[in-house]
Specification:
Blueprint: H1 8-29, H2 31-53, H3 62-78, H4 83-99, H5 106-132, H6 137-162, E1 170-172, E2 176-180, H7 181-201, H8 207-235, H9 250-253, H10 255-268
Antiparallel strand pairs: 1-2
Helix pairs in contact: 1-2, 2-3, 2-5, 3-5, 4-5, 5-6, 5-10, 6-7, 6-8, 6-10, 7-8, 8-10
Length: 271
Amino acid sequence: MNLKQPSNLTQRVLVAIVGVPLLLWLTWQGGLYFLGLVLVLALVGTNEFHHLIRQKAYVPSVFFFLLFTLLFQLNFHYQQVDSWVLFLLLFMVLLVRELFRAEGSRILNIGAAMTGLLYVNVTFGALLRIRMHEPLGMHLVYLLLVSVWAADIAAYFGGRKLGGRFFRQKFFERISPHKTWEGYLSGILGALLGGGVFAMLDPSLGYVPALMVAGAIGVVSPVGDLVESMFKRDAGVKDSSGLIPGHGGVLDRFDTVMFVSPLIYVLTLFL
């Protein structure tokens, strides 16, 4: 007997029922709990990105990538050395490695490895540093997550219901042919609505700052998805992995969170 497979939307809802409360709880706990969360996401994301760039370049083994990811994230948390030291060490090791390799383009190999490790570690490292920003870190992470989720949901349904009605030209057809301007604008409104509701329930950040952050997230959040789509198209794959039912991999699910985290981290420097 053939059982009907759940739809993509159903799978997404089921994953959210389990994943969202866990993510919120780990964020609330902070400390080593949140470090553990970011470590897992960064390590899995690094493994996924390693799979992508192996389609285009000859890069070090996945164990090399995972080792540096571990070093980066632990140092972002414990701050034992300036992060610049690790970036410099990584770059010098990659340069020396290419002296003993004969495969592919040296520039492409180094560039691909640096891109993979920096993309994953700078973005997740920024998320970790946001949470460590006391006393507002937890509230900022919650606002970031709520705004991103609200923008995603509004863009999804806005694009499905209104896509093509007002704008014939697609949002960014070369990279993501299904994205519409209606969906993009719906996402901005969704982020603002999510930020407004959050500010009413949690006044820690203030109503106006929360709306400004949420609005900024709504404006730039699609870029995170476009960047991830760009990488996947270049590698010739549909999803970064099949780890999360209905979502793909960590890079697929957290692409927007990854992209906006460095921007929000910069804002924390002025709070």
